[in-house]
Structures are given as C-alpha cells and as structure tokens.
Amino acid sequence: MAIANFAGRSSLAALLLALAGCATAPTEYREPPPLTATARPAHNLAVFDRAWALVQEKYFDAKFRGLDWAALRDQHRPAAAAAPNEEELYRVLNRMNAGLKESHLSAIPPRRVHERVTAHRAGVGLRWMLLEGRRVVDDLVPGGPAALAGVQLGWLVTTRDGAPIKDGDPYRPQLGQPVTYGFLDAQDRPHSLTFAPQLLELARHEARTLPDGVRYLRFDRFDYASLRWLSEQLRTAPVPPAVVIDLRSNPGGKALALNVAVAEFFPHRVAEGRLISRRGRERESHSVSWRSARYPGRVVLLTGPATGSAAEVFSHVLQFHGRAQVVGRPTAGAVIYSRTWPLPGGGRLQIPVTDYVGLDGKRLEGRGVTPDVATAPRTLADGRAARDADLEEAVRLLLAPPPHLTRPLPSP
To answer: Same structural domain for residues 310 and 193?
Structure first.
C-alpha cells in the first residue's frame, strides 16, 4: 500500500475534516457487462496509453533510472491490445511497470479499487500461512463465518470444495456462493465446514491485555479510523505501562495518518526523514500533533515481511529516536510516497511521486527496517500450537528492566 501524500497537512482545519470523514457503504463489486470483441482492443489501448502517459509525467525520477520507458511501451502495447479481459489487461500493465522495479508503481484493477474505497471484501474471515508445505490457520476475523463455525488457530487447511488447494489459485469468494473447506484440527481429526461468504472489513483493530497490564494493539492500515482507534487505546484509563503494537499485517496507508500516529508517542514534534520531489527539491517531514495522547510508557513494535510503506516509516522513526524496540523480522523495504490517478473503466494507477530518505540518511526502499531483536521464522510446530514467538519476546522485553536508550530523545 502507498504512503499517500496529503496536501495541506499542516492545516489543523484540514486534519479535522479528514478525521471526521464519512465511510463509503460496503457493497459487493459487480462485474460490468463484457465488452464486445471489437470494443475490447480500443478500451484496452485507452487504459494502457493513459497509464503509460501518467508514469511518463508523474514518476518521481525524471531519468527513469536510466530505463527506456518508451521502449517498454512498445514492448507491451500489443499484449495489452490483445488482452481478453480486465484481469489480463492489468497483468500486462503491471509487467510493464515491473521494468522500473519500484514497490509503489502498480495498476489497480476496478475490483480492487472498489474494495479499497469501501474497505470491505467478500470472504469467510480465514487466513493461513504456508509452513513446511502445510497450510496452517494463523488468523481469524472475529465474528466472521470461519470463527463462528468454530475454526481454530493452528488447524490445517486441506481442501476447498473437495479439491486440494494449489498455489496461485485464482479463487475469489462471492456473496451467495457457499464454499466448503476441509480441515485437520489439533488432534488431526478431519472437519468439513461450509461457509457463506460475507463482506468483511479489510483492516483489523484488536486490543487485549497481556501480563502485568501490558496492552496489545493491532491495526492493519494507517488511515483515519485506525488513528482515532489508536489514540483512544493509548488514553484508556488506567493508562497501560507498556504497549505492543503489532504491524505484521500492516502494509501502510496515508501520510497524514502516519504523521499524527508518530506524534502519539512524543511530547513534542519530531523529525521523520526527508522527502525528495521529481525536481530534486527536498523538505523535512515531521510529526503532526493534534490532540495527541503523548503516550509515556514503553513501546515494542512487531514487524515482518508484510510490514510496508507507512508502517515501515513509523517503525523507523520510533526506533531511530529510541522510543521503541522493534521485534520480529525485517520489513518489506517498500517505502516511497505515492499517489493514484484514475484510469478508463474504473481502475487506478499508483505512481511513486516522492522519494523518502530515513533519519539515518539512507533510503528505506529496498532495505526496510531491521529489528532490534530478530526472531526465527515460524515453524509448523509453532503454527499448529498457535504459538506467537514474536509476541512472547515482546512481552519478555517489556517485563525486563528498561534498557538504556542508545540516543537521547530529540529536543523540541
């Protein structure tokens, strides 16, 4: 997900309006009528040519990393014209985009645009992790069909509608189309459960109390709803002595939400790094304090390969200023500020428009954040026991005597 730029972010009036914004009602995406064989090529080329021109005009590196962008257009345009449907057309667009090797250059098909706008997607509330060749349930949406049916963390997923599940399977849950999964429970007893997909929120908010009053907080997007939720959790009386913030499923979000979230953990404004425009202009980025909690307790952040974009900048800033310890595995290394533009037919194109340089003077793009305490990848035994070694290590750190900061907190 992008670190989306936000114009006028220093304006508290604009911030207030943004935080009070209304949500789009969740609805299921409906495929438009198929185009005729004669209309499809013209539509495809309109989408392709618009996407190519937008990158030509907006991409943050005017020299295109030394790549011949026009040659990439000529290479992929015939395949775009011949694409039989939107799904294949967007694959062609992203094959062209991949030539620039940027994390935030992506053509987003209409279905995904709709899901992002409504913040919902049809599903059964079940996620698995592939561990030693087995699919292990590692996340359940509270109140979702799978959780309500009794599925447990650590179960093995064996089949879908009677057939083994294959990598790259294009299956998409649809409302009104029940799906049956086969499982093996903790005692290897088989279960066959049929679920009716529902519209489920894409992002999760989860809070619970751990030993000695430590508070576990998980949020999966840097957006204004998550920002409000986080601030409320940090203010809850009695104020927790320490918090674990789980960013392992957080791919990023809005720049303004990032700026305000950072401010929740400092008594004053702090530096966040440098932003560099297409014309080479540089400016400093800082936290934005607006009724911030100014949380005083100890902080541990959980990160992993799916921690991206704004979540990486958040982790880097708190780690660099000595405000938090980072536990887990390195982050995605996908850190460039981007914006999206509409494409014909309802899709959008995400384009990197501003580069980011961290507080250590280095780009995070392609590098990511290295944890202070690295944990080993999960094993099949961990998954089946629903053991979270990252969280166990975080609690151990927080219950130990406070470490000396490697650097003093920044001055106002």
So the answer is: no
Q: Does the residue 70 lie in any domain?
A: yes
Give residues with Cβ within 8 angstroms of 16, minimum separation 6.
290
Contact predicate 188/155, CB 8 Å? no
Q: Does 190 lie in the same domain as 75?
A: no
Same domain, 104 and 197: no
pLDDT tens, 242-296? 999 999 999 999 999 999 999 999 999 999 999 998 888 899 999 998 889 999 9
**Could you give the CA distance from residue 221 to residue 256 in angstroms, rounded to a whole number?**
12
pTM of the model: 0.88
- Residue 183 sits in which domain range? 123-201
> Which whole-number Å values give the CA distances from 184 to 50, 178, 187, 260, in the listed order?
49, 20, 7, 44
| 81: nearest Cα among 31, 46, 32, 36 | 46
Q: What is the pLDDT of residue 24?
A: 66
CA 286 to each of CA 221, 225, 307, 364, 408: distance values in angstroms, whole numbers, following the listed order: 20, 21, 21, 17, 18
